[in-house]
């Protein structure tokens, strides 16, 4: 049943997303993924609190000159969560925090899941949109609502019950849980590093990370990113000293204007955008320069306490199975999936050429698959090659031989968590270093993928 309150709330959220500049925004996802900055449009703060989002001023903490995300528990957030939950729960639908457990899908009872994005819709999210558009969720008996990101991030929204599931990174889960949150990662999309640290190719004075010494890093002040860049510079023979400049709405513009010398990008999005439209970049990969493990384990997180409800756990399993099927379809049919994303996320005004090229890069780099182990046997397989997945697109490379498992590799995770802990990135609610490094096995589970 259509819920007019839900429609109004979603319209408000979409409008705020556009006001803040996230709709149609194609850059800065690496910079924003860890430590959203204070440069957001401040006049939307009161509206965001009313619908459950928390403005960056409520969701960050400054320690020693470094701005980091803080899992804020403000009264505004709590009130907003209740407001969203009430709105989404009308007419028999599931609430935003899943407390009702069921919703009506064409007259049939179905589990209900609300999912919050981490950024503007892009190919990281394509499996969600494909599963929704092709009816995979309906077939699985789960009613999924995809929510645009809040300024404070998906983690805070999941923590406060505004969304059941959110897109995040394992390192963000570690940072939030160190400060008292109760998040756990349940799905790891990216199996290989996608982050790149880049200067303009025209900067012939920057050929290795050592040349970043004394240069200006375009950033939102993320302690995690600073630790990575410092290690890369030192590994290349430098001192690890650099300056920072607050990123504007577009890191490309900040670099070309001369206000910064290098920044963080994703190879599967901004890297593709650079190849299509310029400017050309010269990039470095963290693992090539002394950063251990996989820094880029991007996927889905929930509250542990939410999983205590058997209905929620069952709904999550259905949701993950259908979502994996959506990602597998995207690998086997990249152009068709790209068009589905562009159409479904029309308010984001995505560039269809960029989305298609991004999928080609994901397939070429095999970013979503584990090439080191037959992980599909452990988590069950999806039927990307079946009639449901469709035939591969003609005229473009396809990943029909690839399948998404969603499995988090703990052996890849722990070295990076240890590295960031030693760098002092993770701090407790009092701003102190925890007694020990976050443990990947405490932060994530693969139990809901089978």
From TrEMBL:
Any coiled-coil regions, as ranges: none
Record InterPro entries: NMT1/THI5, SsuA/THI5
Key word Ribonucleoprotein present: no
Domain (SsuA/THI5-like): residue spans on this chain: 122-337
Pfam families, sorted: NMT1
Region (Disordered): 376-403, 425-450
Pathway this chain belongs to: Cofactor biosynthesis; thiamine diphosphate biosynthesis
Catalyses which reaction(s): N(6)-(pyridoxal phosphate)-L-lysyl-[4-amino-5-hydroxymethyl-2-methylpyrimidine phosphate synthase] + L-histidyl-[4-amino-5-hydroxymethyl-2-methylpyrimidine phosphate synthase] + 2 Fe(3+) + 4 H2O = L-lysyl-[4-amino-5-hydroxymethyl-2-methylpyrimidine phosphate synthase] + (2S)-2-amino-5-hydroxy-4-oxopentanoyl-[4-amino-5-hydroxymethyl-2-methylpyrimidine phosphate synthase] + 4-amino-2-methyl-5-(phosphooxymethyl)pyrimidine + 3-oxopropanoate + 2 Fe(2+) + 2 H(+)
Gene Ontology molecular function, alphabetical: metal ion binding; transferase activity
Keywords attached to this entry: Iron, Metal-binding, Pyridoxal phosphate, Thiamine biosynthesis, Transferase
Biased composition (Low complexity): 378-401
Statement: the UniProt record of this protein carries the keyword Transferase: yes
GO biological process: thiamine biosynthetic process
Family: Belongs to the NMT1/THI5 family.
Subunit annotation: Homodimer.
Function noted in UniProt: Responsible for the formation of the pyrimidine heterocycle in the thiamine biosynthesis pathway. Catalyzes the formation of hydroxymethylpyrimidine phosphate (HMP-P) from histidine and pyridoxal phosphate (PLP). The protein uses PLP and the active site histidine to form HMP-P, generating an inactive enzyme. The enzyme can only undergo a single turnover, which suggests it is a suicide enzyme.
Protein's UniProt name: Thiamine pyrimidine synthase
Species this protein is from: Bifidobacterium samirii
